[in-house]
Amino acid sequence: MTDTPSKLLSGASSALPTRRQALKTLAAGAGAAVTMPLWSRYAGAQSAEPIRIGFGKHATGIGAAYGRWYERTSVAALAKINAEGGINGRPVELVTEDDGTDPKRAAEVLEKFASQSKCDIAFGTLFSHVVIGAAPRAAELKLPYFVVSEGHHVASGMLNRWTLQPGITDVKSQVTAMAPFLTNTLGKKVTMIYPDYGFGYDHRDNLTPAITAAGGEVVAQIAIPPTETSFTKYFPKIPRDTEVIYHVMVGPAVLTFVKEMGEFFGPSRPEIFGFIDSLEAVDMTSPGLEFLEGTYFWEGMPRYLQADAPDYVKAYRDAVGIDENGASTSDGADVSTAAHMFGCWETLHIIKAGMEAADYKSTDDRQALIEAVEAMTDMPAGPDHPQGAKRFNGKTHQVFGPQYISKVTDGKLVVAETVGYEDTLYPDEVDYTTMSF
Amino acid sequence: MRGKSWGAVVALHLGLVAVLFALNFVLPVYHQGVLARVMVLAVYAIGYNIAFGYTGLLSLGHAMFFAAGLYGAGLMGLHFGMAAVPAWAFGTGAGALLALVVGALALRTAGVSFMIVTLMFAQAVYLTILYFGDITHGDDGFVVPSVSRTLAGIDLSQQHPRYLVGWALFSAALLFSLWLVRAPFGRVLVAIRENEERARLLGYDTGARKLGALVISGTISAASGAAYGLLFGYVGASFAGVQYSIFALLWVLLGGAGTVLGPFVGTLFMFYLIDLATEVTDAYMLIAGVVLVGLTLFAPQGIVGEVRRRLWRDLP
Question: Which residues contact residue A55 at a Cβ distance below 8 angstroms, ignoring those fewer than 6 apart?
Answer without folding.
Answer: A70, A71, A74, A94, A95, A96, A97, A122, A123, A124
